[in-house]
Amino acid sequence: MSTARRPLIYLGVFLALALFYYFYEHKGGIERAELEQQAKKALLFSPDSAAELSITTARGTLSLERSGQGWVLLSPVRAAADSEAVARLLRSAADAAHDRVVEDSAADLSIYGLDRPQLTFSVTARGDSAAQILELGNKNPGETYIYARNLERPSRVVLLNGWLLGDLDRTAFQLRDKRLLRFDKDGIERLTVTDKNGKVLEIARSGDRWNLRTQQRTRQKYRADPDSVDAMLDKLAEAEAVGFIDEPPQQWEELYHLDEPLLTVLLAEADGGATHVLFLGARDTSGNYYAARPGAMDNVFLADGGLFDLFSGDFSRLRSMALVGVERDSITSVGYSGGDGNWAAVRSSAGEWSFSEPAGERLDQAGLDNFLYDLLDARADSFVGGEPGGERGLPHNPDFTVGFTAGGAQSRIAFAYDGGTGTYRAAGNSFEGIAVVDSAESAKLNKKLEQMKYRKVVEFVTGAVDRVVIERPGSPALELAGGEGQWRVTAPRELAAASWKVQNLLWKLIDVQYERVLSGSAADNSAFGFDSPSVALSLYQGDSLTVRVLLGEPVDGGGNTKLVALRTSADTRTFAVDAAILAEIPEEPEAFTEN
């Protein structure tokens, strides 16, 4: 044989072995394992293929069939079944596999309790004429397993896990559909509750909000609290029967007042969709539950009393306590007026806010954001008169007023302090009636002009500063250089500096806020001591001056407040700031070193 052909022969042998391994050992091994697993199955069916099933115990036989809308109970009562509960039952039956075969040809089934089984489970798959039947007998001595047989091999006794009996031993109540109503909460447009005397409550969706209307004031709509409405719909969607009344209709109509129900709950879907109706009648003979009948069914359920309470009583609890019912992004202007002056702010198309009154002042963006959050979060403790809209009209001589424009509509809320209760009364066109508002809640909106101004006076980027010069009269300049966490003192002598101390100084400067503006002109240096400042602090990036801060003479702050005059190279105005900043600027180089 030619040596040139040997590698080809070896390659052919290798490929043959590889194919043999793949098809017999690997793929064949998987198929053999699957066949072995199938052979251990107590029943051979797919849960999705089941068309009929029955469960027989000492209580009787429970039978079900699959319909186009799901599973239906046929006996002991005809009713809709809980398809999810049936699906779990079928999965348990389909997954059941024997631990071992006890006998292949058992002569005496009574030894295993299979002459009179505890439970017989029967299932028929679609397209099959015959059912598969599994019988469960006694548990083994250790009560871990249960003896069973499949009637396709009636003399073969196997051991199955004992949990199977508990999984298959279902009652009609456990498999029955107990949901009172089935609906998609997000698709509901209107909820109406009517008692036997007429309409009690209507809640209707309008865009992204809910409106509330009650019998007492049918002409007026009130904004409903969306969380309360959602909670009500959730409870209704999750409500389940605690029992069933399966008497003929002619008996329960009058007995439980379902011919004239105490309450009728109607849900209407949007865009002319389906309606869902629930009738709530009288209490049952125990006095604990109410008779309930979904409008689309002839069955009568027993509902927990909490469901009746949910749709009765004082519906003012559903009213929104929010003073403002708009989205933040829809607000384009906001204003304030009070005894200490007025201010107004507008939002640009880019989303930036600025003062429209007084012109020329800088607005504190963070302060304005907080004001808007407080405005949207403002809640009333109650409304005067109990019933929504009990009293109308603005309070006399309000202490302050907040106005805003949202979606092109202008709104105004006036607040007046009520010394008798220590609360504020508020009224306006963004809600109905007079709101009683906690003093702390009102104080968040009582923001005067000085509180809304941008009060920081030294602005720079701390990370961009790489040189700091501190000058005082009669002393050599103190200089620091570095940045990026590697600072050092360079004058009047060289020292290693603690970078965090330099960083703290920069942060202190950025946080300085003015108490008041002393002057709008830079021409009056001598008036505030800037011709010979107590401290001159210069910040550089490379050779470029970032900002220069001058601290001049003390200023009368009134009371115990000590102020000092301050001016920066970036502003022509002179400010009065807290004199505590002087103590934050070290005088000696050693103050910047690690202690």
Give the biggest beta sheet.
Answer: 9 strands, antiparallel
Report the portion of residues in β strands. Answer: 35-45%
Shape: elongated
Helix content: 10-25%
Distance between the termini: 91 Å
Order the strands across the largest sheet as they lie in space: 4-3-2-1-6-7-8-9-5
Overall radius of gyration: 41 Å
Low-confidence stretches: 386-393
Q: What is the mean predicted local confidence, pLDDT? A: 87
Category from helices, strands and their pairing: alpha+beta
Keyword list:
35 strands, nine-stranded antiparallel β-sheet, 595 residues, 35% strand, alpha+beta, elongated
Describe the structure.
About 1% of the residues have low confidence. The strands form 4 sheets. The protein has a 9-stranded antiparallel β-sheet. The chain is elongated, with a radius of gyration of 41 Å. It has 595 residues and is α+β, with helices and mostly antiparallel strands.
Lay out the secondary structure:
Elements: H1 6-39, E1 50-57, E2 60-67, E3 70-75, E4 79-80, H2 83-95, E5 100-103, E6 119-125, E7 132-139, E8 145-150, E9 157-161, H3 163-168, H4 172-175, E10 188-195, E11 198-206, E12 209-214, E13 222-223, H5 226-238, E14 243-245, H6 249-255, E15 263-269, E16 275-283, E17 289-294, E18 300-304, H7 305-310, E19 331-338, E20 341-347, E21 353-357, H8 365-377, E22 382-383, E23 400-406, E24 409-418, E25 423-428, E26 435-437, H9 439-443, H10 449-452, E27 467-471, E28 478-481, E29 488-491, E30 495-496, H11 499-510, E31 514-519, E32 535-541, E33 544-556, E34 562-568, E35 574-578, H12 580-584
Antiparallel strand pairs: 1-2, 1-6, 2-3, 3-4, 5-9, 6-7, 7-8, 8-9, 10-11, 10-15, 11-12, 12-13, 14-18, 15-16, 16-17, 17-18, 19-20, 19-23, 20-21, 22-26, 23-24, 24-25, 25-26, 27-28, 27-32, 28-29, 29-30, 31-35, 32-33, 33-34, 34-35
